[in-house]
Amino acid sequence: MWRPSRELEKIRRDWEERFREDPTLSSDIGMRFGKPDQHVIDFIEGNKINPYKHKRILDLGCGNGRNSLWLVKNGFEVYGIDFSKSAIDFCKEHVKGAKFIVGYAQQLPFKDEFFDVVIDAGTIHVNPPSERE
Description:
Blueprint: H1 6-21, H2 38-46, E1 56-60, H3 66-73, E2 77-82, H4 85-94, E3 98-102, E4 117-120
Parallel strand pairs: 1-2, 1-4, 2-3
């Protein structure tokens, strides 16, 4: 059974503290709640991903839900997963219409091919190299 490394667990604790202190991440313009990642918008629009053909999307490492919120507003069925309980609690309160769970990208609780699209706007690269496989 997979278990997070000590290094990944430290990263999780650091993010947990950050989200607990300021779940909107108002001091971080690039990750501020209510402002979706432009790369996500460009990916969705540039690849003509639409909620009629590609309905179910996983927001991997959803953080405060900034991308999930945009996806819900654009008609997608959104699931978000993050290893920060504080972030997920914030999402559940502020992003209506999406489903959120606490968990790790390395151990997703979904069946293979459950999602039509998976987005990652900052998860894999913050994981230690040993956790990226």
